[in-house]
Write a structure and sequence with these properties.
Number of strands: 8
CATH superfamily: Alpha/Beta hydrolase fold, catalytic domain
Oligomer: single chain
Strand order of the largest sheet: 1-2-4-3-5-6-7-8
Radius of gyration: 17 Å
Length: 280
């Protein structure tokens, strides 16, 4: 029944819930703070949600059904924005994610969250940036002065994990080449260092947080192999990782909330949260 009644997973920013998490280069970076309505003792776990849009579009209103789904399970949700390309934002966007993590942790008492219980999640470009926020080391500087930017877990839907590979291996070359050029300033042969620096696979090492990857096997924009290759690298580094292939699903499958792939994703996400990131 949910397949035909689920509706869509699209929305807009909720201005009444919006607040800046930082001001960078004279621009306020906003987040929508979405809190559960139930009463709990102690502090909540928090999920920072990073929207997609090919690094060039999208906004913090993306994925409202995921936000509600998480709220219903007791998680605070912080739906954040970041600076979009063009101009090239391969340094600034990941820095904005790390800035958001640090600032939200600094305001943990205000929001009633546990600063040790923060995770990142996102899809497509947002999946790349969620992974970058979770994996990046000192080579990726936060875009604002913050302390701890570590997270306890990370989830990514259909993420581009190796951007150079994404340039050459895609079923939508016009779109991929345009967005990657906007984000990185040119092709991989022109800026190989930028492509490496903006790819989560570059930062794989032991000790990274538990990772959940969900990816359609028929993704024509970001091939499934992107998540499969990252999974192999994480396993080699003994990082806890769960890869869920979603049969026949294409890019952005979760826009349809009742889609079979989305239903599978909800069950898988539930299991991952229960194992690695339970709500209090």
């Amino acid at each position: 029944m949910n397949y035909v009644t689920g509706g869509t997973n699209t929305g807009d920013p909720v201005e009444t819930l919006s607040t800046p998490y930082a001001s960078v280069d004279g621009t306020d970076l906003l987040m929508d703070v979405k809190m559960p309505t139930d009463l709990v003792e102690g502090r909540r776990a928090a999920v920072i949600w990073v929207h997609g849009g090919g690094f060039t579009g999208g906004d913090r209103g993306e994925g409202p059904e995921w936000h509600k789904w998480l709220n219903d399970r007791g998680y605070a949700v912080f739906a954040i924005e970041y600076r979009l390309a063009p101009p090239p934002r391969w340094e600034q966007a990941p820095g904005d994610i790390r800035c958001a993590v640090g600032r939200i942790k600094e305001r943990a008492t205000e929001f009633g969250i546990d600063p040790a219980r923060v995770m990142l999640a996102g899809g497509s470009a947002g999946g790349n940036l969620a992974l970058m926020g979770a994996y990046a080391d000192e080579r990726v500087a936060p875009s604002c002065p913050v302390g701890d930017t570590s997270v306890a877990a990370v989830t990514a839907f259909s993420p581009p994990t190796d951007l150079a590979s994404g340039w050459y291996d895609t079923g939508s070359p016009d779109y991929s080449h345009r967005t990657l050029t906007d984000y990185l300033g040119g092709a991989p042969d022109v800026h190989p260092d930028r492509y490496a620096a903006a790819s989560p696979r570059t930062y794989v090492r032991p000790g990274l947080p538990p990772t959940l990857l969900m990816h359609g096997t028929r993704d024509h924009v970001v091939p499934f192999d992107q998540s499969a290759a990252l999974t192999t690298a994480l396993e080699s580094a003994s990082v806890p990782v769960t890869l869920v292939p979603l049969p026949y699903a294409d890019h952005g499958f979760d826009v349809t909330w009742g889609d079979w792939a989305t239903q599978i994703s909800r069950d898988t996400f539930d299991d991952f949260l229960a194992r690695y990131f339970p709500a209090p």
